[in-house]
Design goal:
The chain contains 18 helices and no strands. With about 400 residues, the chain is an all-alpha fold. The protein has a single domain, classed as MFS general substrate transporter like domains (Growth Hormone, Chain: A, Up-down Bundle), CATH 1.20.1250. The protein is globular and about 50 Å long.
Amino acid sequence: MSLTNSPSTLENQKRDQLLRVLAGITFLIFFQGYMVAPMIPRLSAAFGVSAQRIGLLVPAYLIPYGVSTLFFGLLSDWIGRRRIMLASLVAFAGLTGLTATAVTADQMILWRFLTGLGASGVVPLALALIGNLFPYEQRGRPLGWLFGAMAGGMAFGSTFGVLLEPTIGWRGVFLAVSAVGFAGLMLLRPYLGSLGERPLAKTISLGSVLTGYKRLLTFTRAQRTYFYVFLNAVFHSGVFTWLGVYFSRRYDLGEVGVGLALLGYGVPGFVLGPSIGRVADRWGRRWLVPAGIALAALSAVLLAPDLPLISAVIAVTILSLGYDMTQPLLAGIVTTLDPKRAGQAMGLNVFMLFTGFGLGSLLFGWALQLGFTKALMIFGGVQAAAGLAAIAMFCSEQRV
């Protein structure tokens, strides 16, 4: 039998095909999550409410998404990963479609809240699945794909959501995403056996839940990793969520112009995500994580003063590179914390990530009372301090 047809080779091919499907679904979920922010001015006019009021659509989705990952990760360890992932994907597609039925701002906020609750079982369990499919020294590349899909979904959602809206309307955008979500469910069907079905526990109790989280947080490595996941998410979401308003106010760009200006945010993740993962697999994460945090801080400082438009667009691309050099690598560390509670460990990771996303958008919105320059300098200063501290915090993260 030739090497190309050997069982191990065929298994690796199927594994990589599943990775691509999961990356596509991850892209779509983040596309849906971030296509709303640039449409805030349009939705504000459509519902007759203030921009800050309709801006609650972002944390209304992200915060319940983060909270519910704690339960989905736990349930996956109890009743099996496959059931949770499929049910959550159905909820994502269905509730996204139902959002198009909203006739008031409050109704739309409610639909976004419910979508956040229902959709959060896919991405964290896909990340946990990587821990089963790939050994630690090979996880950088697949995690780079998934986090690159996240960054790409954020950027393309911000861009093409507003590009499509004038043609098919905001309701049409939600319906289109819903249809693609159901298509993704069909693409996942050939790989159901690879998603994992056998649960690790027969019973569940509040005591066992708390014991599991206590065990995860006992070790210094876990504490610092989760802390940086949260802090980094606060920074990136805070800056990115309000970039649409930033470009609108500073450069007088319309919705399409704003979308195009934000497109650079997804380029590093799409182009360099797997390569960054390979570098981490080869050399470890000790330098990449602090460097990524520092780059993100630099981007905020660059955006603070008045810049030529092209310079601001480049700064947004640097912001994206900072994200791609941190969150995927931190997730790789999380996959090694407790293999017996992989779902719970990754659920806590995504809880920190999305809670940070939601809180970051709120905090930056409050800081905007001081103006964009001061808000960006505050966020950039805190991020720079975190980057300096990360040099000592992650010095032990050598290649395994």
